């Protein structure tokens, strides 16, 4: 299904390049710009704690944000990544989730010059295929974006990592949306306009900039907090 939307993205890219505005708006950047809102604030860090383990009750509470876990493919000596090298486990929950947001994601991706397949894949990871409490009604936050949306927010426990990759738990405010469509639109707005002090941080992930969805994913994995 993700490949299907990647192919649609390629078909519309040529039309987009013909019609897009060639003028570029230059945005001034301040040396003292605000930090990335996705990163913990100083106040949140003051109240950090050790993360709960999977067998502890705390991790099962509804106010704890959960995400999908994934494992990177091993580096093979012969560089062979054929279908015999690994097994893919199908998930009906993930398929159902993709179907539920695919139409909106495809249209938003087409309008905003971003890969719908990448948007959907990130939503799968950040929301545990839509099963996390943060992603479900009444919150509808598919990407774990912090802050508030038109004044609406919800507080969750969430895991963060420091510069040494040590995990800790904090309480943070996350945006609360009327529906998943608004969450997808807000994510697209973030990808198009970046963060305070670095409006072009996600520009290499745009369809008009990245050679393929794989290049977009590679950059996003390094830059998305």
Automatic annotation (TrEMBL):
<feature type="compositionally biased region" description="Basic and acidic residues">
    <location>
        <begin position="7"/>
        <end position="18"/>
    </location>
</feature>
<dbReference type="InterPro" id="IPR051056">
    <property type="entry name" value="Glycosyl_Hydrolase_73"/>
</dbReference>
<feature type="compositionally biased region" description="Polar residues">
    <location>
        <begin position="19"/>
        <end position="31"/>
    </location>
</feature>
<comment type="similarity">
    <text>In the N-terminal section; belongs to the N-acetylmuramoyl-L-alanine amidase 2 family.</text>
</comment>
<dbReference type="Pfam" id="PF01832">
    <property type="entry name" value="Glucosaminidase"/>
</dbReference>
<feature type="domain" description="Mannosyl-glycoprotein endo-beta-N-acetylglucosamidase-like">
    <location>
        <begin position="87"/>
        <end position="225"/>
    </location>
</feature>
<protein>
    <submittedName>
        <fullName>N-acetylmuramoyl-L-alanine amidase</fullName>
    </submittedName>
</protein>
<dbReference type="GO" id="GO:0004040">
    <property type="term" value="F:amidase activity"/>
</dbReference>
<feature type="region of interest" description="Disordered">
    <location>
        <begin position="1"/>
        <end position="76"/>
    </location>
</feature>
<dbReference type="InterPro" id="IPR002901">
    <property type="entry name" value="MGlyc_endo_b_GlcNAc-like_dom"/>
</dbReference>
<keyword id="KW-0378">Hydrolase</keyword>
